[in-house]
Amino acid sequence: MSNFWVFGYGSLMWKPGFDHVGAQPALLRGAHRSLCVYSWVHRGTQQKPGLVFGLDRGGACRGMAFEVPADKRDATIDYLRAREQVTMVYIEKWRKVKLADGRTVDALTYMVDRSHDQYAGALPLEKQLNIVTHAVGQSGKNPEYVLSTACHLDELGIRDAGVSWLAAQLKGQA
Q1: Nearest to residue 107, comparing CAs of 85, 76, 153, 82?
Q2: Catalytic residue among 67, 84, 92, 126
Q3: Which residue ranges make up each domain of the chain?
């Protein structure tokens, strides 16, 4: 068995939570980062949902790829399933990503399930802001999640106009 890769596009970029032996920026084609998942656990509740990022079909997404040692495969996948599949809103898929060093590798990803009740779709930015501003879940306040993701995207030189706009609005409310 060999090492494998995990692609992060939201909180996995800045809080992977699993052992890895390498990490580098990566590009996934055929899906884009979108604040399109109603969060019923981590950043909201079923009664007052927050919003979290999902990989939705179409476009491309820049994020981080983490190389996981072969001997940590089962433990890492178990951890990710417990973290990402609490309500089964994501579909676990292996997708090709292009690493910053030029290699293309298969990476474990979590794509949003468009048929799930938590799929919010492409909400207008003002509606996203309203939802995020007031939501809190088991992992904390929803604005902290969006701001942390925006900060890490900036650090990586990844431009995401929607995330940047939301971050600017959220900072203005602080």
Answers
A1: 76
A2: 84
A3: 4-173
